[in-house]
Specification:
Radius of gyration: 25 Å
Helix content: 40-55%
Number of helices: 4
Length: about 90
Amino acid sequence: MALSAKPTRPTQKVASPDPIEAFISKGGSVPTPVPEEREAKGAQHPLKFPAGSDLFERLEQARSASVVKLPRNTWILQAIAEKLARDT
């Protein structure tokens, strides 16, 4: 989990007789997002492929060649369902 600095509060004071309105108008700042470290590492996938195999590259080529771009997990689940339908 990324950590960021505590947001700073505005320094201007809003004079309002209603304490609820004063609290609402006091507001705050939004923390700045920290860049994802995953982007620097490159593409990652939770599946383990055999070392020295081109299976992952073949999977990615087949997935990118389809007309409808599906997430990798959905594509794999669809391929499993099609194989099970063929085998049964």
